[in-house]
Amino acid sequence: MRILISGGSVAGPALAYWLNRHGHETTLVERAPGVRDGGAAIDFRGTALDVLERMDLLGTMREHQTRMDSMSLVDDSGKVVATLPDEAISGDLEVLKADVTRILYEATRSQTAYLFDNTVTRLDQTDSGVTAGFESGPSREFDLVVGADGLHSAVRRLAFGPESDYLRHLGIYGALFTTGNFLDLDHAGLMYNTPGRSALAFAARGNTELRVGLSFVADGLAYDRRDREQQNDLVAKAYADAGWEVPRLLEAMRGAKEFFFDSSSQVVMDRWSAGRVALLGDAAYCAAPTSGRGTSQALIGAYVLAGELAAGDGHAAAFDRYEQVMRPYVERNQAHGRAAARFFFQQPDDDTVEALGEEVDDTVDLPDYLGTTARRA
Ligand SMILES: Cc1cc2nc3c(=O)[nH]c(=O)nc-3n(C[C@H](O)[C@H](O)[C@H](O)COP(=O)(O)OP(=O)(O)OC[C@H]3O[C@@H](n4cnc5c(N)ncnc54)[C@H](O)[C@@H]3O)c2cc1C
């Protein structure tokens, strides 16, 4: 089949990888002008490691581990007041998101046609295919379209309706940016928490960089998603009276090349497919950064979606089975994401503390889809 994927971060390239291996023809459209840099460090947990192994990429990912030695909480003056246990800060394997994206891009670029600096603007479905219109270039025909284009998915908007129908805001906003390591952190991170705010800075790329996250509690902020200065002002206002190194971090934020700002939201949908269009990763079931499991979900979802399509009994049956395999896992991750958001930013009630204390089941019982392809071949 000819399959169009929208979004080239984690879910999109991972899906392209598996579709290529199952013998499909893949085109991937990404709005950014090239492979995206910047962003957080992300964790792979549980079954996601099995998927990386099946992709022969586990070794490469391990070579790019962040190797953080410690994460400590500091007070106003910068004095360390607590050091967090390893399992609280990183999963089984922690890698910079930019490295994950680049590794997946390298693993797919020879077989997948990448269209950077472009986006889908129209999707017209018929019984036999989908015509996709693009911001630049002519319309093209595909058998299926998959939206792996994140929280603000264009494919979801075009095929399922406005995002306000599906986004559940958790009452938190966050900025992420990269700057020089002026705190001289050595494979370490520092966190400074005050009521309703959590500032984080950690060393990255052999201690040459500082990756900074500034999150805060707020309800329904009105801002233009393309207006960086306005977003910088919102963060600066939320942190106006903050201590520690926050004034220097705010200054660095305004000069940072890579800057990201968004609400912490979940995506909740009854169905992840409509006809020949399906959704994957954050576009379909974002669990919010507080879950620490968005990347694992995206990776496992890509493996399952491609694998079910390989069964060869039609896309509708494959999309149904993809949902059956993924939904219980996604619901666990979303529940954890909500509980962690309350724990870090609000006064947690007893149920929240209890929910967070429970170990999250990071396993999905994965069928052996590679065997399916081999049998069909
Ligand atoms: C601050 C922060 C911390 C996080 N920490 C963790 C963690 O510790 N562990 C973890 O597992 N996950 C974490 N996550 C979540 C994780 O980054 C996501 O869940 C994961 O990247 C999902 O991947 P995705 O490919 O579905 O979506 P995204 O990574 O959001 O990628 C979407 C892609 O689509 C592109 N795109 C958007 N719109 C269009 C369009 N119209 N046309 C074409 N392309 C488009 C974007 O440019 C982007 O490349 C964190 C996220 C944030 C923001």
List keywords for this structure.
FAD/NAD(P)-binding domain, 2 domains, 377 residues, single chain, alpha/beta, D-Amino Acid Oxidase, Chain A, domain 2, seven-stranded mixed beta sheet, binds flavin-adenine dinucleotide
Describe what you observe in this structure.
36% of the residues lie in helices and 27% in strands. The chain starts with a strand and ends with a helix. A hairpin with a 5-residue loop joins strand 4 (70-74) and strand 5. The chain is built from 13 helices and 18 strands. It has 377 residues and is of the alpha/beta class. The model has no long low-confidence stretch (mean pLDDT 92). The protein has helices at residues 11-21, 47-54, 58-63, 86-89, 97-108, 154-160, 228-238, 246-255, 282-285, 294-309, 315-345, 350-357, 369-376; strands spanning 2-6, 25-30, 41-44, 70-74, 80-83, 93-96, 113-116, 120-125, 130-134, 140-142, 144-147, 167-180, 188-194, 197-204, 209-217, 259-267, 273-274, 277-279. A seven-stranded mixed beta sheet has the order 5-4-13-14-15-12-16, with helices on both faces. Strands 7-2-1-11-18-17 form a six-stranded mixed beta sheet, with helices on both faces. The chain folds into two domains: 2-65 and 94-167 and 266-376, FAD/NAD(P)-binding domain, CATH 3.50.50; 170-263, D-Amino Acid Oxidase, Chain A, domain 2 (2-Layer Sandwich). Residues 6-12, 29-32, 36, 40, 42-43, 97, 119, 148-150, 154, 174, 176, 213, 281-283, 289, 292-296, 298 line the site of flavin-adenine dinucleotide (FAD).
